[in-house]
Amino acid sequence: MAAAKRSQIAVTMYTLRDFCNAPEDIVRTLARVRRIGYTDIQISGSGLMAVHPPDLARMVADAGLRIIGSHIGLQLMRDGLKNVVWRLHEWDCAYTAIPYMPPEERTTLEDWKARAKEFVALGRAFAKEGITLQYHNHAFEFQKFGGTGGVGGKAALEILYASTAPKALQAEIDVAWVARGGGDPAAWCRRVRGRMDQVHLKDWMMIGEEPSWTEVGAGNLNMPAVLAACKAAGVKTYIVEQDACPVTNDPFKSIAISYKNLRKMGLK
Q1: CA–CA distance, 258 with 38 (Å, rounded to integer)
Q2: Can you say whether residue 115 is alpha, beta or left, with left for phi > 0 and alpha for psi between -120 and 50 degrees?
Q3: How sure is the predictor about 209, in pLDDT bands with cuts at 50, 70 and 90?
C-alpha cells in the first residue's frame, strides 16, 4: 500500500505498546493507526523491537505508514552501535532518541557532564550514517545542579544542551513532562530553536488530586502557545504520545482525539 501524503502529525507506538506483543497484533494495530489518519509513526516499545527489522519495515509499509523516528535505549547503543545503525537503516529511519536515563546515571553534575560528552560522541557517530540523535526528556531533568547551599544552579536539561553541539544532539522536547517538571513547555521549545526537528506532544489534567495524562488539547497545557513555539523553533514533525489513557481507557480512541484536535489547531 502506498503511503499517503505525509502529515505533520505522527504517533509514537509506545502509546499502543499493549497491542504490539505478537506480529499479528502489530499488523492489526498498524492498520488501525492508518485508518485514524496517521501516516507516520515513531518506533518505541519492546514488542516492536523484538521483530526482525526488515520484517517490521515491511509491516509498516504494507499498512501505508512510514517510520519517522525511534526510541532506542542508551545501553543498546553502547553495546552495539553498528547493530542499531543497521536496524535504523532497515527501517529507513533518520532519527533516534535516547528515551530515558536510569537514576544511577544522573545523580550529580559530573554525571550530566559525562553523559553530555558521551552523547556528543554517539551523535557524531550516528551523523556519519545519516542519522540524527535526539534526547527525550522526562521531569527529572529539571533538578538543578551547581548551586550553593541549595540556591541557584541550572536544570540538568539546560546543562545537557549547553554542553552539547546542536549538530551532535537534537532535542526531542516532551512538552507535558516539561510541565510536570515545573518548566514552561512553550519557552523550552523556543529555547531549543534550530535543534528540534521533532517534538513529543502530550497533555495532562488533574483527576481528583492526581495529575493524569490526557489527549492533546484536552488538558491543562496551553497547546496553541506550544504549537506556535514549535513552529518558531523549526519543528517538522509533531509526535503524539500518551503514556496512559485514564479518560477513555482506549489508546486508539485517545490518539484519534489527539489527531483531530491537532488538525483543528492548524496542523496538517
Answers
A1: 11
A2: alpha
A3: confident
- Which regions of 56-116 does DSSP assign to beta strands (E)? 66-70, 95-98
User: pTM for the complete prediction?
Assistant: 0.96
Collapsing DSSP to helix, strand or coil, 119 comes out as helix
* Cβ neighbours of 82 (radius 10 Å): 9
| Beta strand pairing call for 66-70 and 237-240 | unpaired
CA 233 to CA 206: how far, in whole Å? 29
Scanning the structure block, which residue is given the C-alpha cell 484519534? 256
**Are the beta carbons of 267 and 8 closer than 8 angstroms?**
yes
Average pLDDT over residues 218-247: 97
Backbone phi and psi for residue 238, each to the nearest 5 degrees, phi listed first:
-110, 110
* pLDDT (0 to 100) of residue 3: 45
Closest among 229, 223, 224 to 203, alpha carbons compared: 223
So what's the architecture of 9-264 in CATH?
Alpha-Beta Barrel (3.20)
Q: Mind spelling out the 3-state secondary structure of 160-224?
A: HHHCCCCCCCEEECEHHHHHHCCCCHHHHHHHCCCCCCEEEECEEEEECCEEEEECCCCCCCCHH
Domain chopping of the chain, boundaries: 9-264
207 band by pLDDT with thresholds 50, 70 and 90: confident
Specify whether the backbone of 267 is left (phi greater than 0), alpha (psi in -120 to 50) or beta. Answer: beta
Judge whether 109 and 146 are in contact, CB under 8 Å. yes
CA nearest to 36, candidates 236, 258, 264: 258
Give me 128's grid cell.
556519519
Least confident of 42-46, 205-209, 210-214, 216-220: 205-209
Comparing CA positions, the residue from 39, 122, 108 lying closest to residue 79 is 122
